């Protein structure tokens, strides 16, 4: 049986329930206290669809505004986008519209859009009328459905709707090609090598599932996915060269259609006149009833009870698709093992890498997909009706007419029972695809789910912290919209011994399951410290302290582990901090804050940076000031003598030895007051810098900020080598010999990458015993795949040409 991988992303305002929807869909679980997503989380679930399996690669994005810039990496290449709003919040519906606009402008051309009005269990306090959503969905040719993650209403139907829309697109596409007399092979030859919607070819399917569930070219890193089904004929036509083409006869699909209204072209161009009118009264299923259905009330043992929606409507699952000649997109999976098991990690095992996380051990492999996927026709009827009666959970299927053309077929299905009082037939998609949990074979793969029911959420935990705590991204400290002061590299240089910087690589999970603590500490400042410096700025108006990346390793064990890295925790739960010694500077070597040593107007003496051994550290300002002409001035000028400035080029200011560097840019932050440097300061300074008062000291905060920015830019010019291709990368590793090589995989469009970069560069200045390189993932796709980079930014370490753990 062929497996088709479909990248799906969820977009929408924060708090609308995106994560809850995914959680319900993948895990059949609802968490009242679910934390806001940070960055994004990733889950997979495979469901049967006709004669093939559709494996959803689901990217649940963070709805908070500050993560907006990350979204493109998730919707890029997506086959479908689920845009979620909260029916009790009008604002969230506006936000949804913005997302749709963005998708139309920047998303894949034919991305399937599904609008989900979540929290329909709260319809008594609804702010968004269903009618509005339907009209809007119609206007953009989207699927629309009201859902409740809480009560498990229409969640599976939502995805099944997407499933079918995509499937229909393929079908149409195939037909089109046939009409045009196109040679399938030649068409395929024109298709991109990588696709977010691809078929896996049989023989290797199991192997792939067990060892390489996540394609190496993980989603956002792969080329744009060949466009999927949406509405426009034109668009579909243009997809020809990009679309998968099934070599199987259409006759292989109909079984699905008979029980399952297929999205047809007209489906894609919704016309509500023809679509079933919602008849809440007739189609409603009381929530109590829903919650009582076994599927919703009972957590299934996923490992043993594969659950599949489609199975109930696709009794011919066992049919095997004949792969087309070009095996790139097809894998003929004769009888795939239960993907779920395939992917699940062994209980108690801490997966060591993203792959491992999802990878199963042979001993766990298990159920023949036959069992897990195949349904019994006799099971179908019992549920469809219930499903159809769902109160708020109708799926509005534009273009019902297109589906009704198969009325004769559908009439044999339980949907018949969904007839409204008015005699209309309501055929929510779910009807055709839904079965009760208890009877459904669980989609073979809650892939990332462990046997304990844990969900590995990439990125989420890696950067997640509780909202009530701090905010969590490095950029927060730099990019505050609320006028927060920029917090430059302070912490990367100033971490305390106990907070040693462990290096910027969250992603540097060790294969042995170690977790490397990345920049957390290096970026994170202690409150007590920051309060003394302008970096207090990192505190939000609400008093929150932004803690970058900290949470990447802070996920609570009791919670779901949401990130592949989480799984890198050792069985003992230890977190290894291997880089500590090699990277972190010793306390004794650390320079003190400049502000400690510089005298303020009020008579405080600002001493030149001096460490315990008497070394004098020159603040970076000097180095930055060498570019004075270009840079905006900052208050730091205030303690530099105009007549006697010692301009130090960046290099000069960058000591060759660890600890010789004092100073993160913030060191240059000076008191707002006018500063007068007494003569003794000049004496203390090795360079004899005599700091005089200056009106520059009165420069507004903005100047300082721009100064910091400039400093960061300066740092960015530091000692990081930009890798152009795989060959160069290998060369660097080779030349490095015994030296540690730190690699930053990033992309220009990636916000977090941009935020991390200065820190990475600052470390490069600090650790001359480490070779720092940067790989632009856009330029080096092959390298990215080879290095198994699954998210951005990713930091990896190499030693002796091997990935270093
Ligand atoms: N009543 C009700 N509450 C829900 C439903 N879905 C989610 N919630 C609650 O809404 C809140 C936010 O849910 P999330 O799933 O975290 O929302 P999100 O859209 O992922 O939020 P971000 O991660 O910040 O983007 C949580 O308290 C959930 O328990 C639902 O269907 N009904």
TrEMBL record:
Compositionally skewed regions (Polar residues) per UniProt: 255-267, 276-311
Keywords linked to the UniProt accession: GTP-binding, Nucleotide-binding
GTP-binding found in the keyword field: yes
Biased composition (Basic and acidic residues): 195-215, 331-380, 389-410, 419-440, 449-470, 479-500, 509-530, 539-631, 657-675
PROSITE patterns: RAB (PS51419), RAS (PS51421), THIOREDOXIN_2 (PS51352)
Stretch list, region Disordered: 175-216, 250-687
Boundaries of every Thioredoxin domain copy: 699-805
Pfam families recorded: Ras, Thioredoxin
Family statement: Belongs to the small GTPase superfamily. Rab family.
Protein name: Thioredoxin domain-containing protein 2
């Amino acid at each position: 049986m062929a497996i088709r991988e479909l990248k799906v992303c969820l977009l929408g305002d924060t708090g609308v329930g995106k994560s809850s929807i995914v959680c319900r869909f993948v895990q059949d679980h609802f968490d009242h206290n679910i934390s806001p997503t940070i960055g994004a989380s990733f889950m997979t679930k495979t469901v049967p669809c006709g004669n093939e399996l559709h494996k959803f690669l689901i990217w649940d994005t963070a709805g908070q505004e500050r993560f907006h810039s990350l979204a493109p990496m998730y919707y890029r290449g997506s086959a479908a986008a689920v845009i979620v709003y909260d029916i009790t919040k009008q604002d969230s519906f506006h936000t949804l519209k913005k997302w749709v606009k963005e998708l139309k402008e920047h998303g894949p051309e034919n991305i399937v859009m599904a609008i989900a009005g979540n929290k329909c269990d709260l319809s008594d306090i609804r702010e968004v009328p269903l009618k509005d959503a339907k009209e809007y969905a119609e206007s953009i040719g989207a699927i629309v459905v009201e859902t409740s993650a809480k009560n498990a209403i229409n969640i599976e139907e939502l995805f099944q709707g997407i499933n079918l829309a995509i499937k229909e697109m393929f079908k149409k596409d195939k037909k089109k090609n046939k009409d045009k007399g196109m040679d399938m092979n030649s068409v395929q030859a024109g298709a991109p090598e990588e696709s977010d919607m691809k078929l896996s070819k049989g023989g290797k399917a199991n192997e792939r599932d067990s060892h390489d569930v996540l394609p190496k070219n993980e989603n956002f890193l792969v080329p744009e996915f060949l466009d999927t089904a949406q509405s426009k004929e034109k668009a579909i036509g243009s997809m020809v060269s990009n679309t998968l083409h099934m070599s199987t006869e259409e006759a292989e699909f109909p079984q699905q259609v008979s029980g399952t209204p297929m999205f047809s072209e007209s489906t894609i161009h919704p016309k509500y006149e023809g679509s079933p009118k919602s008849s809440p009264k007739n189609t409603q299923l009381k929530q109590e009833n829903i919650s009582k259905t076994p599927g919703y009330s009972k957590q299934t043992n996923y490992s043993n009870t594969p659950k599949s929606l489609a199975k109930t409507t696709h009794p011919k699952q066992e049919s095997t698709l004949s792969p087309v000649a070009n095996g790139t997109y097809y894998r003929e999976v004769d009888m795939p093992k239960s993907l779920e098991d395939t992917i699940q990690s062994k209980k108690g095992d801490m997966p060591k890498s993203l792959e491992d996380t999802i990878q199963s051990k042979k001993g766990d492999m298990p159920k023949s997909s036959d069992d897990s996927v195949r349904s019994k026709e006799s099971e179908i009827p019992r549920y469809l009706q219930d499903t159809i009666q769902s109160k708020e959970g109708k799926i509005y299927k534009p273009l019902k007419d297109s589906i009704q053309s198969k009325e004769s077929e559908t009439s044999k299905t339980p949907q018949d029972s969904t007839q409204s009082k008015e005699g209309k037939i309501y055929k929510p998609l779910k009807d055709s695809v839904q079965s009760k949990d208890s009877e459904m074979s669980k989609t073979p793969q809650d892939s990332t789910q462990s046997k304990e029911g844990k969900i590995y959420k990439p990125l989420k935990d890696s950067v997640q912290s509780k909202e009530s705590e701090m905010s969590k991204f490095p950029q927060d400290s730099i990019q505050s919209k609320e006028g927060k002061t920029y917090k430059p590299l302070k912490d990367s240089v100033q971490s305390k011994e106990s907070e040693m910087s462990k290096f910027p690589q969250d992603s540097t999970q060790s294969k042995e399951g170690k977790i490397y603590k990345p920049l957390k500490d290096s970026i994170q400042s202690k409150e007590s410290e920051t309060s003394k410096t302008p970096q207090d700025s990192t505190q939000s108006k609400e008093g929150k302290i932004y803690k970058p990346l900290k949470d990447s390793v802070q996920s609570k064990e009791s919670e779901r582990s949401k990130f592949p890295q989480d799984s890198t925790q050792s069985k003992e739960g230890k977190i290894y901090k291997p880089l500590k010694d090699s990277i972190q500077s010793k306390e004794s070597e650390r320079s003190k804050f400049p502000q400690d040593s510089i005298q303020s107007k009020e008579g405080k003496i600002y001493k030149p940076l001096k460490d315990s051994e008497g070394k004098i550290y020159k603040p970076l300002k000097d180095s930055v000031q060498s570019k004075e002409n270009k840079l905006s001035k900052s208050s730091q000028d205030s303690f530099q003598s105009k007549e006697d400035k010692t301009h130090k080029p960046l290099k000069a200011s960058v000591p060759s030895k660890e600890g010789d560097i004092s100073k993160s840019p913030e060191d240059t932050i000076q008191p707002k007051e006018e500063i007068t440097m007494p003569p003794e300061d000049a004496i203390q300074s090795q360079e004899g810098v005599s700091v005089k008062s200056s009106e520059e000291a009165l420069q507004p905060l903005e100047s300082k900020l721009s100064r910091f920015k400039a400093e960061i830019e300066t740092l960015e010019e530091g000692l990081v080598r930009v890798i152009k291709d795989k060959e160069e990368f290998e060369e660097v590793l080779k030349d490095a010999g015994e030296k540690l090589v730190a690699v930053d995989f990033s992309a220009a469009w990636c916000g977090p990458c941009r935020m991390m970069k200065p820190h990475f560069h600052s470390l490069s200045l600090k650790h001359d015993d480490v070779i720092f390189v940067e790989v632009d993932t856009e330029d080096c796709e092959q390298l990215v795949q080879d290095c198994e980079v699954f998210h951005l930014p990713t930091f990896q370490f190499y030693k002796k040409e091997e990935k270093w753990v």
